[in-house]
Amino acid sequence: MVVPYTLGLHAIATDTYAYLQPDGSLGLSNAGLIVSGDEALLVDTLFTVPSTRAMLGAVARSLPGVTVTTLVNTHSDGDHWWGNQLLPDAEIVASEAAATAMRDDRLHELLADPGDLRLPRIVDDLRKTFDFGGITPTLPNRTFSGELELAVGRRTVRLIEVPAAHTRGDVLVHVPDVGVLFTGDLLFVGGHPVIHSGPIGNWIAVCERVLGLDDVTTVVPGHGPVSGTAEVRRFRSYLERVRDHATRAHRAGLPVPRAARETDLTGFTDLADPERLILNIGAVYRELNGDGTPAEEELFPLLDQWLDHRGDPVPPPGT
């Protein structure tokens, strides 16, 4: 089934839907809906209360009489759970690791009102694009570790927690009766991903695990158009490219910005948000250093430098 990449709710299989938000860049995440009779399981809410309200309105118009009884948050990034408050009667499920990170999350407060704090441009642009007011963090009321099967009417949905990759506690949502997999941010299509946690080898292993699900034919990424296993293979190749290049650059003593700008993107030049290579190279360096450096928050200001110098030649050694 060819699914148009347009804003809104799209049927992707029998009684199974994806809610898409082009162009899939920062904050524009996807969600999913699995229906049986008059009940449904929702995969993720969205970045803000208004965007989540718009999604739930689209569901109500397309599927009158269907009630979301279960909500699964695939991970702890705000664009996948900050709209939870609009489903006060639902059972909200997440991995225990993700729920722990969610309990400590105060980023929405900073985005709503940073005060005098100077924010990186990429973060300040978020504040111009999204309305972060009125968010009341609504945490999962059911957690698990490993795997969990949920019943949605007569259907079974399988939750698979994977080792730390994009974040700690990432969950795949497998719908075996129709061969659909909702990956959350374990898959990005059309743009560079962000490695918040890693190690990157875990993420590559997740791709292998997805490809080992023989019944899966339709894959809904956390960001980007509805895809299939070919996009998972391509994404695995991207992660392998980043891992191998960053390892060589670290061995050569290159600073993160230079290593990022020297990355060979042959085959991946169409991907949006290339400045995220700063974060991804930095994540591999952090893994190789073994001492928590460079911390992700130290890398964010470097994103502005990348954006300021797009199109410049690669800087001389040592910069």
Write structural notes for this entry.
This protein is α/β, with parallel strands linked by helices. The protein is built from nine helices and twelve strands. It has a seven-stranded mixed sheet. The chain has a five-stranded mixed sheet with strand order 8-9-10-11-12, with helices on one face. Strand 4 (39-43), helix 1 and strand 5 form a beta-alpha-beta unit. Helix 5 packs antiparallel against helix 6. The protein starts with 7 loop residues before the first strand and ends in an 11-residue tail after the last helix. The model is unreliable at 311-319 (pLDDT under 50).
Could you write a compact summary of the structure shown?
The chain is 33% helix and 22% strand.
Secondary structure layout plus pairing:
Blueprint: E1 8-13, E2 16-20, E3 31-36, E4 39-43, H1 49-62, E5 67-72, E6 91-95, H2 96-103, H3 107-112, H4 121-129, E7 142-144, E8 147-152, E9 155-161, E10 171-175, E11 180-188, H5 200-211, E12 218-223, H6 229-251, H7 256-261, H8 277-289, H9 296-308
Parallel strand pairs: 4-5, 5-6, 6-7, 11-12
Antiparallel strand pairs: 1-2, 2-3, 3-4, 8-9, 9-10, 10-11
Helix pairs in contact: 5-6, 6-8, 8-9
